[in-house]
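User: what does the whole thing look like in 3D?
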Amino acid sequence: MIKLIKSTFYHEAETKEKLIDFIRSAEILSMSDECKKFETAFTRKQGRKFAVLVNSGSSANLLLVQALLNLGKLKKGDKVGISALTWATNVMPLIQLGLEPVAIDCELNTLNVSSRTLEPYLSSIKALFLTNVLGFSSDIDNIQRLCSDKNIIFLEDNCESLGSRVGGHNLGNFGLASTFSFFVGHHLSLIEGGLVCTDDEDLYNALLLARAHSWDRNLPMNTQRAIRQENNIDDFFARYTFYDLGYNLRPTEITGFLGNTQLPYWDEIVKIRVSNFTTFHNAISVNDDFIPLAVSHMELVSNFAMPVLCRDNDKFIKYRKKFEGQVEIRPIIAGDITKHPFWSKYVSKSYVCPNASFIHNNGFYFANNPELVKEEVDLLCSLLKP
Ligand SMILES: Cc1ncc(COP(=O)(O)O)c(C=O)c1O
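Assistant: Here's the predicted 3D structure for the full assembly of 386 residues, as structure tokens:
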């Protein structure tokens, strides 16, 4: 059986050995230097100014939305566009924090929202929290331009697309901020973990506050001094002063250490995933039973799972039967998010998203991980034949 997740870490045995040694010798295991070191290294690798590490990708999404509310960039009741094809905790923080999610359909041949599907919503949404689905994108540069023209806050949920590149830029570098997941099976596994990236210093400071109780201890010194002065707080009370709404979403030093151990494998991991993707993509493109993905606009497609979209439901049933038993498969992310029970419970408006709905009913994905061996890649390609 080719499982969705083959191992917890890339270079598993070596990483576990290092982790054991680290835990034995470390004096501090709560958030400290290893987390800071990873944040700095991640910003360099991703090409962003600031990064805030948290305990999951879901927490990264929650933190980002809370920070934007704290800054007054978003207000309760604002409409926020989301991709109809996404993960639950891309949308849930919006509902939890009093915003209104607006489901936007995707393109069948990119699985992503495009400027075409976004167009009807441009005059009503205050922000767009776009999901870069499974390493792909549509015309994200046009989306970025449209959002900028219309003063729409553009955010990327990049939890599925670390390492993918379009037009010379990494996905995750198009919006005001972007979020990442380091859950097992994603590109870099830290067991659990997530991160928010931005180039905006005010947003960075708001993220640092809201990540840990909304106290000022983790702020850079000059910002800490300024916030104390502004609120007239003396140093004795400052350590227990809470400035806005916050959480405890902190990672541990174990997360930071694992990040520093796995990050050097970034290029190697992305290279193998890109190569596997190309092999599977070629197999899919020559079989008329499938709708091939359009990727010529992309420089690198780095995904952790390979989507297969069948032309109709009979073909979906046929290939599902072929794969099941030999290969672990699952719906493409979670299909159309508006079809899930939580959506109708909390969102009164219904949205028609024919492409997301088609993908829900006729698509599945299997693993694309860097540890697939040749026999496994060959088996997967043979299953993709008519
Ligand atoms: C698009 C997207 N956003 C957010 C998440 C949540 O990440 P995590 O599992 O680290 O909480 C996922 C998880 O797979 C995801 O696919």
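In plain terms: Residues 56-58, 61, 86-87, 89-90, 131, 157, 159-160, 181, 183, 194, 333 surround pyridoxal-5'-phosphate (CB under 6 Å). DSSP finds 15 helices and twelve strands in the chain.
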